[in-house]
């Protein structure tokens, strides 16, 4: 099966926009994806017909809001094959999900124990663990990658030992596009009894995330990279681990019993969700997950690979273009340098052609330093992008090359 990309595009109102009289070519999907009409409608409908706080009102709207909100939890749990709805904790996104785990780990980690990450981490999956180690006297170990952006799995394995308390790595690298062998890495970490967190920010939108099959303990992701609104995401955690995980946010909704001097915590998922949640965001995420699930997964992946293959192929014809990240298994992300041009200048010229890409350090400063570059330009593809848009990217790059020569 192939994707009906034309029909898909028609569901995204923003893709009809023109920038400076030129059709928008949106190639910044690793930063955030656009939202289909069904997601926009779900949010508007919630505020138009149901708006009320959840879990607390003794009235019709509050019951209805709670039902819709909790239905989204069921939908997300099914989407990632969680072993129960209570394993899905709502957060503001990947960053907050990782912080929830890292703040807890900071309390559990003993001096001398170790956390292992990789050289390709986004700051969200690096700085968090640095801080957890700092407060607890733990040590952060960093597994190296090869020049092509692939993880050195042997070197990763060599870092694991009986002091390893937690291992964290990205499912897909936002900067390099590398798809990591997450089942294999998880199995290796489990062999030394370490906890495993997968940063799924980029992995979630590529379909087929099955948290039970991965075997990890935590999978963190953001809704906004999956056609849902910003400000909502989830932490999936194994129930037996989450049940005993130290709470990090305290306040309303997460408690069982409160006195002036003390409090006890409620059951999952509430014990890790304090305060009024992003109700419309949750409902939007539920709508996005249900919409995405209707697509043919194999067709989604084949389309993304076709876009990436065309992008890689055309790169060799551009004078001075260097792709950063050429691992054999990649998702639809292409970071690159154009000669000695600063990525910001490349981005500016592309923007004038209606082509939206990301430029900068990709929230991965140590990784950029490793490659000896200030940052990259990055084109990233989603299901609604077309091969013609990849060609437009290259038309714009040829123009940039001429202007910057
Ligand atoms: N990890 C990776 C690999 C990412 O790409 C991102 C988003 N760029 C994050 C973590 C953080 O996600 P968010 O900003 O949505 O919390």
UniProtKB/TrEMBL annotation:
Which keywords accompany this UniProt record? Pyridoxal phosphate, Transferase
Per UniProt, what is one Pfam family of this protein?
Answer: Aminotran_5
Example of a GO biological process term: cysteine metabolic process
Record bears the keyword Transferase: yes
**Which Gene Ontology molecular-function terms are recorded?**
cysteine desulfurase activity; pyridoxal phosphate binding
What cofactor(s) does the depicted protein rely on?
pyridoxal 5'-phosphate
Under InterPro entries, the record lists: Aminotrans_V_dom (IPR000192), Aminotrans_V_PyrdxlP_BS (IPR020578), Cys_dSase_SufS (IPR010970), PyrdxlP-dep_Trfase (IPR015424), PyrdxlP-dep_Trfase_major (IPR015421), PyrdxlP-dep_Trfase_small (IPR015422)
**EC numbers:** 2.8.1.7
Occurrences of domain Aminotransferase class V (ranges): 25-393
- Reaction catalysed by this enzyme: (sulfur carrier)-H + L-cysteine = (sulfur carrier)-SH + L-alanine
Q: Which residues form a coiled coil?
A: none
The keyword Transferase belongs to this UniProt entry's keyword annotation:
yes
Enzyme class label: transferase
| Role description | Catalyzes the removal of elemental sulfur and selenium atoms from L-cysteine, L-cystine, L-selenocysteine, and L-selenocystine to produce L-alanine.
> What family is this?
Belongs to the class-V pyridoxal-phosphate-dependent aminotransferase family. Csd subfamily.
In Swiss-Prot or TrEMBL terms, this protein is called Cysteine desulfurase
Supply the source organism for this entry.
Alteromonas confluentis
Recall the taxonomic lineage recorded for the source organism. Bacteria, Pseudomonadati, Pseudomonadota, Gammaproteobacteria, Alteromonadales
């Amino acid at each position: 099966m192939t994707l009906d990309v034309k029909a898909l595009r028609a569901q995204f109102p923003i893709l009809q926009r023109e920038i400076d009289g030129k059709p928008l070519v949106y190639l910044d999907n690793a930063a955030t994806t656009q939202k289909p009409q069904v997601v926009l409608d779900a949010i508007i409908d919630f505020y138009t017909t149901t708006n009320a706080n959840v879990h607390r009102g003794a009235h019709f709207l509050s019951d209805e809001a709670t039902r819709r909100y909790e239905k989204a939890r069921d939908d997300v749990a099914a989407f990632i094959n969680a072993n129960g709805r209570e394993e899905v904790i709502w957060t503001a996104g990947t960053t907050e999900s990782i912080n929830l785990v890292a703040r807890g780990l900071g309390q559990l980690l003993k001096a001398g124990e170790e956390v292992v990450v990789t050289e390709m981490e986004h700051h969200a999956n690096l700085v968090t663990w640095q801080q957890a180690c700092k407060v607890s006297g733990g040590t952060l170990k960093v597994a190296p990658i090869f020049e092509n952006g692939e993880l050195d799995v042997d070197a990763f394995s060599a870092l694991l030992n009986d002091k390893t308390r937690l291992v964290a790595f990205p499912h897909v690298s936002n900067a390099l596009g590398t798809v990591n062998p997450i089942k294999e890495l998880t199995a290796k970490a489990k062999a030394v009894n370490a906890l495993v967190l997968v940063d799924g920010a980029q992995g979630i939108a590529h379909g087929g995330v099955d948290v039970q099959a991965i075997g990890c303990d935590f999978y963190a992701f953001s809704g906004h990279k999956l056609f849902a609104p910003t400000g909502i995401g989830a932490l999936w955690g194994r129930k037996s681990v989450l049940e005993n995980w130290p709470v990090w946010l305290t306040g309303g909704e997460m408690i069982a019993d409160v006195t002036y001097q003390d409090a006890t915590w409620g059951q999952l998922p509430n014990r890790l969700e304090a305060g009024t949640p992003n109700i419309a965001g949750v409902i939007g995420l539920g709508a996005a997950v249900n919409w995405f699930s209707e697509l043919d997964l194999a067709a989604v992946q084949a389309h993304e690979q076709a876009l990436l293959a065309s992008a890689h192929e055309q790169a060799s014809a551009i004078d001075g273009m260097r792709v950063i990240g050429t691992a054999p298994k990649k998702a639809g992300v292409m970071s690159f340098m154009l000669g000695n041009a600063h990525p910001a200048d490349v981005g500016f010229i592309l923007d004038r052609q209606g082509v939206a890409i990301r430029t900068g350090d990709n929230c991965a400063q140590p990784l950029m330093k490793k490659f000896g570059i200030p940052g990259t330009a990055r084109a990233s593809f989603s299901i609604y992008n077309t091969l013609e848009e990849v060609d437009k990217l290259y038309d714009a790059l040829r123009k940039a090359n001429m202007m910057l020569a």
